Amino acid sequence: MLGIAATTSQTILVREVVVAFVGNELSIGLSFAAWFLGIGLAATAARRVRLDASVLVAALPLVSASAVVVARMLRPLLGVAPGQYASAAALALGTLLVLVPPGAVVGLAFVYLADLWSGSSNAPSDPVSRAFGIEALGSLAAGALLSLWLIGRVDPFSVHLGLFALACLAGVPPARGRIAIGLRLAFSSVAIICIAAGFGARLDRISATARFRSMVPSAKPLRVEQSPYQHLVLAHAAGQYDLFGSGTLLATFPDPYPAARAIHPALCQVEHPRHVLLLGCATAEHIERAQMYGAQVDVLQLDPVAGELIREFEHPQPALAGARILVGDARAFLRNGSPRYDLIFSALPDPTTIMLNRFATVEFFDQAARTLADDGVLVIGVQSGENYLSGDMGAYQGAVFRALQRSFARVLISPEERTTFYATNGSSATDDPQELARRYEQSGVNDPFFDPVMFGELFPAGRIAQHRSALERLAPDRPNTDERPIAPYLSLILWDQYAGGSLAPLLRKLSRARWPTFAFPLALLSAAAALLVLIRGPRKLRVGLTSLSIGSTGLAGMALYVMLISAFQNRFGSLYQQIGLFTAMFMAGLAAGSFIGRRLTRGLRTGNTAPLLLGELAVWAAIALAGLAATDVLGAAIGLSRAWWFGLMALAGAATGLCYPAGTLLLAQDDLRKSASLLEGADHLGACIGGLLGALILIPLAGFAGAAWSLWLFKLPVTLLALYTLILRRTT
After folding, report:
1. What does the alpha-carbon distance between residue 36 and residue 177 come to, in Å, rounded to a whole number?
2. What would the 3-class secondary structure string for 158-201 be?
């Protein structure tokens, strides 16, 4: 029950924080870190406090539901004005407020449940590893249920009420006495009545509306939907509809003037466009203008729910009847034999997240280049908002610019409020306003919202030269790639600047570093910790080795989790709904690893370090496999379907779980509650650091290969310490 409630709470709350902070990539890493921080601190303190385990398990859904309300009120609570960016300090404080309290309940409950089972087994390592394995199995069930059915169908408050009712009915330990049983039945009945009466759904609507008002007070929300990709809100203001995805503006309609300024310069880059592909949330206004040139228009919607919302609220448009509306992942579409296009026009938001970044990397641009006709053009825009391109904005735009230069022979620039790049391997594309005006007039197109004079505004020769020079000077030396997604990281620097934060100088310095800059300090830190354990002497060696091994494994395991979900998102795109399923597979691996570890430790004497050394070697193997998969070495060799990725996640979990029973064997002669507290605390405090390190530093800056090498070097001193301890024990 604890595993079910914990995974459900974590998945729901992480999604809520992401929406509250407008999809900021920093919020994901901070959310995982705050969750594990709460578990680790509470588990460490559990040896000094005594509470009823069944009360804690039943209280978790209520605490988590309260945290959902807090998450939806975060912006006004933190003083973040509508339209304003939240600073890094506000992000950190907000994630702590939302994730630490329920995490703390999980940490306390785990230790007390392990203590309850202490009398049910003769094996010294069984109670703690048994609790660990059963919690993981509950997490597997919750993650699968959330990803495959609950998300998008049942509101989070009804989910939490259902968990509360279930926890009351399936209390651990079983209720004794008529009064206790009666109270549990009464509480569960009240929760079920609240669900049936629609209390959870009403609270969801009220709090979601309040959250949206805190972000966009001038608009009235009309529809709220959960898609596999994002949280969607369609709002109405001043005669227009705005579609938001996880807080980011995806489309505005009707809005013919910006659509005309975007589409006509793109279509005029090709002499006679016959086949056009529009990516993302293209509206009927985009489609209609592309059809003015006599082109066949295909619209590829990455998020079908977003496309349905736009079509539902758009006025009837004859243009839609002649367009081919497709649904699917753009990279899979281009990879699997799409038609040859004269123009690919991206209407996607900026690459500020891993999901969006996969449409602004060298790998995507290579696919687009192979799909385009000989004189075909790819059009992609990036935010600017500056008359003069400064350092940080130049680095952010430059990462995309460098990637385009790797894939295309020519990259033209339109330096507007949103800088637009026109990339081609042909000779047709031009930034000459007179030539573009000639093509527009020759096409016979007559759009009341566009005048050929605008080409001079869109392509001013002086500003283009200045902008190109700034990009060449300020762009990072390495382009934006799948393996090293630097653009989302560089967007965090801009975010911090706009929010008035103080992290930008540090983030800027880190962005220029190579992977050894992170790997060697991690290895030195691990080596120093191992040396400190040795210096403290043989009496402290057992506890020190266990704490260091479990803590470092928690860090490596969480970093592997982040690495695999990031690599999966690069390849398949959809993660928002499947995050629960990934957690489920990781927890399934943890349960399997814990079971195998329990079998291995049975019959062994207390203090035997051989199982711990085996666990360390298993983590090394998991790091190697994850690194090969993330860098697409495995994919090139055998091809990796979604099922393979879920299997890899389970293997990473199994390697992590294998160390847990080995650690309990070393601590078996200590007080059980103290041992459970130490293991749970070390594991989750390590995971807290691993979540932050993986999401914010290693993957965007070191890349997947650099991250794998860094984790290998980090685990090396701990593995050598386990080997030394085993040799020492056998020689004495």
Report:
1. 36
2. HHHHHHHHHHHHCCCCCCCCHHHHHHHHHHHHHHHHHHHCCHHH
Q: Kindly tell me the sign of the dihedral angle through the C-alpha atoms of 222, 223, 224, 230.
A: negative
> Which tens digit of pLDDT belongs to each residue from 630-645?
777 666 555 567 777 8
In the chain, % of residues over pLDDT 70: 85
Encoded tokens for 654: 């199994």
Q: Which residues contact 649 (CB under 8 A, 6 or more apart)?
A: 561, 564, 565, 582, 585, 586, 589
- 341-347 and 372-383: which strand pairing? parallel
Residue 418's SS3 state is strand
Quote the CA–CA distance of 213 and 3 in Å, as a whole number.
34
Confidence (pLDDT) at 668: 57
For residue 134, give Cα distances in angstroms to 141, 228, 313, 367: 11, 29, 48, 45
Instruction: Please report, for residues 62, 228, 515, 532, 552, the alpha-carbon distance to residue 528 in angstroms, rounded to integers and kept in the order given.
Output: 42, 44, 20, 6, 13
| E strand segments, 372-454 | 372-383, 410-414, 418-424
The angle that helices 672-693 and 88-116 make with each other, rounded to 10 degrees, is 150
Q: Of 367, 363, 358, 333, nearest to 573 (Cα)?
A: 358
Evaluate whether 443 touches 293 at the Cβ level (below 8 Å): yes
In the chain, which stretches have pLDDT less than 70? 1-3, 24-25, 47-53, 112-152, 171-178, 180, 316-321, 385-388, 538-539, 573-580, 603, 606-607, 633-640, 666-676, 732
Q: Is the dihedral of CA 473, 476, 479, 485 positive or negative?
A: negative
Helix and strand counts by DSSP (H, E) for the chain: 30, 11
Query: pLDDT of 662-685, one tens digit each?
Result: 777 766 555 556 666 777 778 888
